[in-house]
Amino acid sequence: MADTLATNVRLMLYGTHVHDLDLVDITATIAINFPSATGQAFATGTGNEQADLIFHDSRSCKSSTAETLDLSSGTLEAGAVELIDEFGQVLDFVKVKVLAIHNKDVTRSLTIGGAAARAWETWCTAAGDSVVIPPLGVLLLTAPNAGFAVVDTASDLLLITPSADTETAYDIVIIGTSA
């Protein structure tokens, strides 16, 4: 029996802005769904708007032992974490279609990217680039068609470093393809 994966990524921004006047209140409401009201669906497969791999976990790390996640199982980097799904299968991403990281810490930031070697930075503009997720912040990257390329032994290591040498918790979801 073949595995199937059906996912949907949706981000909703909702807010109200109220301006109090003497006799009336003026209210402006914003409600935006990205990319649409129904979200971005991914069917099983390896083409456009398709995915066949998913990794999700609640994790924690310290700056003295920053985590390196190996997105490709071909050649495991020493000290890197091999990604394994809920069925015990080692995951070998060739493209990442969705990366979502939620920093659950209320005081410390997380730096994503910037591995010394084999850095997975195809979502950045230059080698060595990184993104800081502030306390309680979320990083969401999507590339439903082309995806962000992962190349074993060349660009397959995702470094996650907290801002202090204290345990910092985060949730991560990676959705992508094996081809």
Largest sheet: 5 strands, antiparallel
Can you count the beta strands?
Answer: 15
Strand percent estimate: over 45%
Contiguous uncertain segments of 5+ residues: none
Q: Which structural class best describes the helix and strand composition?
A: mainly beta
Distance from first to last alpha carbon: 19 Å
Summarize the structure in words.
This protein has 179 residues and is an all-beta fold. The chain has a single domain (46-177), classed as Jelly Rolls, CATH 2.60.120. The protein contains no helices and 15 strands. The chain has strands spanning 7-9, 11-20, 25-34, 40-44, 50-51, 53-61, 67-70, 81-82, 95-103, 110-113, 130-133, 138-142, 148-149, 157-162, 168-177. The strands form four sheets. Strands 6, 9, 12, 13 and 15 form a five-stranded antiparallel beta sheet that branches. The protein has a five-stranded mixed beta sheet with strand order 8-7-14-10-11, with no helix packed on it. β2 and β3 (25-34) form a beta hairpin. The radius of gyration is 19 Å and the shape is globular. The two termini are 19 Å apart. The model has no long low-confidence stretch (mean pLDDT 91).
